[in-house]
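SAMPLE LOG
Freezer: B-3
Tube label: C17
Construct: single chain, 112 aa
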Amino acid sequence: MIAELCGIIWVLQSVRDLHLDSICIASDHRDTVEAVMSPATWPRFRCLLEHITVLRSSFLSVSFKVEKVGANLIARDIARSVMRDGCLHSYLALGGPAWLHNRIIREASRQD
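STRUCTURE (predicted):
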């Protein structure tokens, strides 16, 4: 749960730095979304949830939704490859690896 909440903080900071004002964050971790939506019911994570609340106030609109695990497979594979290969900086800005392009194409054709 702490890793998930830290991830949301990172996303909010990154998106704010990109000057976006309306975002939707999807997670396959239901408890995380519930905690962000009802922080008072999750006192154990108060510090992180307060940080998220402060960051949310810098946007016109921030929404959260729960996704099925299958909807985040590409994101999970990116995270695995970053950890496995020791990439400390984003390789996505450079176009990403070939396997990623192939996966995105397959995903897009499956959803059409």
